[in-house]
Amino acid sequence: MRTASSAFLSLSLIAIPVALGIAIFRQGLFDIDRVISRTLAYAIVTGVLAAVYAGLVLPRQHAVLILRAVLRRRAAEAADLAARGYSRAARRRPGIPDRRGAW
Question: I need a labelling partner for 61 at 20 to 30 A (CA). Which of 12, 21, 25, 79 fits?
Fold first, then answer.
């Protein structure tokens, strides 16, 4: 049953654009040269915009990701150094228990 319904769906999805194309050409509703020229113009503009996006935005995005990774690493190192400094200072002070609970 699935193959029959999928075949019907595929046929209907193909039939609608084909029927529209036949009706447009039969009635002379569009000048084919204009349709082709506009399609090519829009395709070229889309390609140029995609190239500009790829050339400008994607490298910057990659640089930001690298910078974030470096900053995360630096923050972790700073936190580690701060924790080490605190633990050394706490060991030197009298009256503060160590890890084992000893004074």
Answer: 79
